[in-house]
C-alpha cells in the first residue's frame, strides 16, 4: 500500500522512481491532511521535511528516503497508542 502511494505520486512529474518536492507536497496534502500546518509556515515546514528526508541531497526523495518518513510516522502513532493504553 505504501509502495502504491509512492508510485502514484512519484509518477506525476519527472522520474517515476523518486518524488520531487512538489510531488511530496501533494502526497502529504492528499494522504496526510493536517501533517503540514496550513498558513505561512507551510513552505518552511515542507522545506524542512523535504531536506530531512533527502539524505543524499539530490533534490528528490527516493523510495528508501520516503520510508524514513513512513517509519517516523508509524513510530509516532505507536507511541501515541501506547500512551493512550497506559493511561
Ligand atoms: Ca534523495
Automatic annotation (TrEMBL):
CDD domains for the chain: S-100 (cd00213)
Molecular function GO terms recorded: calcium ion binding; calcium-dependent protein binding; transition metal ion binding
UniProt entry tagged with the keyword NADP: no
One of the record's GO cellular component terms: extracellular exosome
Record's keyword terms, sorted: Calcium, Metal-binding, Repeat
Chain ranges of the EF-hand domain: 41-76
Transmembrane residue ranges: none
Swiss-Prot/TrEMBL GO biological process terms: endothelial cell migration
Pfam family, one: S_100
SUPFAM superfamilies: EF-hand
PANTHER family: PROTEIN S100-P (PTHR11639:SF139), S100 CALCIUM-BINDING PROTEIN (PTHR11639)
Protein name, entry field: Protein S100-P
Originating organism: Myotis davidii (David's myotis)
Lineage: Eukaryota, Metazoa, Chordata, Craniata, Vertebrata
